[in-house]
């Protein structure tokens, strides 16, 4: 029986393993046919930013091509295209977007607010908050 899971993410990209864990949970739930709501709050609104760029790793002497640094924007896009479809709903908190200037994101997410998160919580089978610490 398909369920609905709501996740609240707060970590910006590349700061901790929290985002990676959330991506893995989202992917696993989608693969099992569940619906996943992701509410990106605070720094997590930057997970979807189009402007992310790969970089070399001079400390290890690697070029951009050799480093193949994963970008969270590509992971989010992949979640939408590889099975997410209409079962993945992603909202970037508009307040958080505005204060960070993070309005240019990949296709899929939409702008919303804390009220959207509250609505999802009341409609979901489970809610998981992944805090910064």
Could you characterize what this model shows?
The protein has about 130 residues and is an alpha/beta fold. It has a single domain, classed as Hypothetical Protein Ychn, Chain: A (3-Layer(aba) Sandwich), CATH 3.40.1260.10. The protein has helices at about 20-30, 65, 70-85, 95-100, 115-125; strands spanning about 5-10, 35-40, 90-95, 110, 125-130. A 5-stranded parallel sheet has the order 4-3-2-1-5, sandwiched between helices. Helix 1 (about 20-30) links the parallel strand 1 and strand 2. Helix 1 (about 20-30) packs parallel to helix 3. The chain is globular, with a radius of gyration of 15 Å. The mean pLDDT is about 90.
Key structural traits:
single chain, 133 residues, alpha/beta, Hypothetical Protein Ychn, Chain: A, 20% strand
Strand order of the largest sheet: 4-3-2-1-5
Derived structural class: alpha/beta
Query: In total, how many domains does the architecture comprise?
Result: 1
Query: What is the helical fraction, as a range of percent?
Result: 25-40%
What's the gist of this structure?
With 133 residues, the chain is α/β, with parallel strands linked by helices.
What topology emerges from the helices and strands here?
Layout: E1 4-9, H1 18-31, E2 35-40, H2 64-67, H3 72-84, E3 88-93, H4 94-100, E4 110-112, H5 114-123, E5 126-130
Parallel strand pairs: 1-2, 1-5, 2-3, 3-4
């Amino acid at each position: 029986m398909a369920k609905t899971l709501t996740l609240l993410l707060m970590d910006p990209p590349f700061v901790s393993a929290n985002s990676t864990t959330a991506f893995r949970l989202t992917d696993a739930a989608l693969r099992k046919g569940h619906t996943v709501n992701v509410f990106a709050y605070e720094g997590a609104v930057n997970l979807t930013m189009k402007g992310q760029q790969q970089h070399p790793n001079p400390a290890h002497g690697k070029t951009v091509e050799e480093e193949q640094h994963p970008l969270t924007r590509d992971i989010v896009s992949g979640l939408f295209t590889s099975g997410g479809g209409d079962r993945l709903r992603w909202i970037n908190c508009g307040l958080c977007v505005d204060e960070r200037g993070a309005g240019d994101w990949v296709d899929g997410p939409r702008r919303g607010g804390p009220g959207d998160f509250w609505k999802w919580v009341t409609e979901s089978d489970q809610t998981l908050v992944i805090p910064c610490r």
